[in-house]
Specification:
The protein has four helices and eight strands, in the order H-E-E-H-E-E-E-H-H-E-E-E. It has about 190 residues and is α+β, with helices and mostly antiparallel strands. The chain has a single domain (about 10-185), classed as Methylpurine-DNA glycosylase (MPG) (3-methyladenine DNA Glycosylase, Chain A). Strands 1, 2, 3, 4, 5, 6, 7 and 8 form an eight-stranded antiparallel β-sheet that branches. Strand 1 (about 25-30) and strand 2 form a beta hairpin. The longest helix is centred in the first third of the chain and has 8 residues, at about 15-20. The two termini are about 30 Å apart. The mean pLDDT is about 95. The structure holds a DNA duplex (13 and 13 nucleotides).
Length: about 190
DNA sequence: GGACCGATGTTCT
DNA sequence: GAACATCGGTCCG
């Protein structure tokens, strides 16, 4: 399979259209000589102002700082005591925005992912904190530049799929915004 | 296969 | 000191 890194200006667009556009693309994680790759099958968009569900809704703080910074960076944060969640920063610098990756489908380096997770089958990557564990993404990867080679996104294959749009998961505000997107029928989606 | 619940640490009030 | 963009177990059907 041929993988081609997407262009940096992709990340300039608004979070909602980026969240949809990221479905079917490939997330690649390099660790020295080993490579892991997975197809993005579920995302959620978060913005700043006008998005009560977002970390960046109230104001800019040290934690959500990355969301306001330049696009095409990773925003990784620690959640609920034992989980890391991975976001891709979008929108121009100064405007808060990010896309949370909620689920992926492993395509390369699967053995390593199983080992990292200690799990089998869809359980390796069918949740936002599951795939970060599988792909060895943690605190050190916060602010990683996705135009470099440690973590990056590649264009997907030419395939047709339906996109389902729902309320985001795990938050109590902003539920009227249907900013969770996933590939219809994909078995790695966390909550169909 | 759905509902409930505890673990656990960082952030912000 | 409460809230929190979750997970994995357990219980009950």
């Amino acid at each position: 399979m041929k993988l081609r890194k997407i262009k940096a200006d992709f990340y300039l667009q608004n979070s909602v259209s980026a969240a949809k556009a990221l479905l079917g693309k490939y997330l690649v994680r390099r660790q020295g000589a080993s490579v892991m790759a997975a197809k993005i099958v579920e995302t959620e968009a978060y913005r700043g102002k006008n998005d009560p569900g977002s970390h960046a809704f109230v104001k800019r703080t040290p934690r959500n700082e990355v969301m306001f910074g330049p696009p095409g960076r990773a925003y990784v944060y620690f959640c609920y005591g034992n989980h890391y969640l991975f976001n891709i920063v979008t929108e121009p610098e100064g405007t808060a925005g990010a896309v949370l990756i909620r689920a992926v489908e492993p395509v390369a380096g699967i053995k390593r992912m199983k080992k990292n997770r200690g799990a089998e089958g869809i359980n390796i990557t069918n949740g936002p904190a599951k795939f970060t564990q599988a792909m060895a993404i943690g605190r050190e990867q916060n602010r990683t530049d996705l135009t470099k080679n440690e973590i990056y996104v590649c264009d997907g294959q030419k395939e047709k799929f339906g996109i389902v749009s729902k309320s985001r998961i795990g938050i109590k505000t902003g539920l009227d915004l249907k900013w969770r997107f996933y590939i219809k029928g994909n078995s790695y989606v966390s909550k169909p």
